[in-house]
Specification:
Shape: globular
Strand order of the largest sheet: 1-2-3-4-5-6-7-8
CATH superfamily: Phosphoenolpyruvate-binding domains
Structural class: alpha/beta
Helix content: 40-55%
Number of domains: 1
Strand content: 15-25%
Length: 253
């Protein structure tokens, strides 16, 4: 939990590319971490990865000197402080739909007086031996990403990005399209208009904008980079695994 490059890049709106970990085993982290990503996000919203494994995966990722983020299960005090106490460099918070939601996330991350997080002594604080150093690190380096994945969040995007402590936003395309009644139909005009609203607000305020490119499609990643996105989640562990296998086996089946 000493990685400062991600925070620096976000503050200067420089490109960062990471990926999504959904398979709860440190081997997956060891395979993807050396690939050149700036960060890897452990997803505990849609997967059954327990907190013990989360801590193991965090330490594995950090051993490669890249940032270990956790997409938490919800915007809730206990889950946020547990992954941070485990040593995460930051969190991705789902369903941030208002300034109130954004402020709540920041409060759960920061200790008083900046926030309301309860104090515990675990891996992040070196089990008590490094508490003061952790507080200093937390105040200057922890990363808080708000996930915009509902039309309510789109409509309140200006409030979210102006909330002190939020470092970037990332669009979750599946849930955003679902909130508009067309899950997975990213080419629908109503979905494109919602995405454009987020893009415009972030560009006007020079605020870091992210997107989760689900399919392992490099052309799509380049397309979003061209649009000014600087916090890009490039696919997932299972898609990298399945697509590579299918592509290599297509001549035989």
């Amino acid at each position: 939990m000493k990685n400062t490059q991600l925070k620096y890049k976000l503050q200067n709106n420089k490109l960062t590319i990471g990926s999504w970990l959904t398979i709860g085993h440190p081997t997956i982290s060891e395979i993807l971490a050396p690939a050149g990503f700036d960060w890897l996000a452990i997803d505990i919203e849609h997967n059954n990865i327990d907190f013990s494994m989360v801590q193991t995966m965090i330490s594995t990722i950090q051993s490669y000197n890249i940032a270990a983020l956790v997409r938490v299960s919800k915007n809730e005090e206990v889950v946020i402080k547990r992954v941070l106490d485990a040593g995460a460099d930051g969190i991705i918070v789902p369903m941030v739909n208002s300034r109130e939601d954004a402020e709540k996330a920041v409060n759960f991350v920061k200790y008083p007086p900046e926030g309301t997080r309860g104090v515990g002594l675990s891996r992040a604080q070196k089990y008590g031996a490094g508490f003061e150093q952790y507080v200093e690190w937390l105040n200057s380096n922890v990363t808080i990403i708000a996930q915009i994945e509902h039309i309510d969040g789109v409509e309140k995007i200006s409030d979210v990005i102006s909330t002190t402590g939020i470092d970037a936003v990332i669009i979750g395309p599946y849930d955003l399209s679902g909130s508009l009644g067309c899950p997975g139909e990213f080419d629908k005009d109503i979905v494109k208009k919602a995405v454009s609203r987020v893009e415009e607000a972030c560009k006007e305020n020079n605020f870091p904008l992210g997107y989760h490119v689900i399919q392992p499609n490099l052309d799509l990643v380049k397309e979003f980079i061209g649009k000014g996105y600087t916090f890009i989640a490039f696919s997932t562990d299972f898609y990298f695994l399945s697509d590579t296998a299918k592509n290599l086996m297509k001549d035989f089946v």
